[in-house]
Design brief:
The protein is mainly α and 156 residues long. Helices cover 56% and strands 10% of the residues. A two-stranded antiparallel sheet has the order 1-2.
Length: 156
Amino acid sequence: MSRRKNIIKRKIFPDPLFKSKLLTKFINIIMKNGKKTIAQFIVYNALNNLINLTNEFSLNVFKKAIHNIGPVVEVKSRRIGGSTYQIPIEVNLKRRNTLAMRWIIEAAYKRKEKTMSLKLSNELFNASNNKGLAFKKRENVHKMADSNKAFAHFKW
């Protein structure tokens, strides 16, 4: 770890279509090899498909999906006295949103639909209704934290 000055994080600007910073972050996570226009095309097509699926404003469905998938607690490994414990720790809002986006994208990649925009729109729809692979991942993380609740006093 460097002992020099802290790195200043770059600002994330809102996306041009919906004016949402959360959506820009989502597009940046989907982006591969710097191809942002392709990532934007995929996300905007997925949001258009969401309008057909739900008859609601797609950005609201997107935000609801991220809110539903974001974990409240997670476990971190701590080595104490020669043994390693999984200690449940609360997740702050920024990490919660990042994990939710990452899990939704992972779940979308594993789906069987033909195009990525279809996979993404269906996964976002399922996530907004508390279903799908991403929601199962969240439930598994919560179960792990619940089963290791006895070690919560080790967090410092």
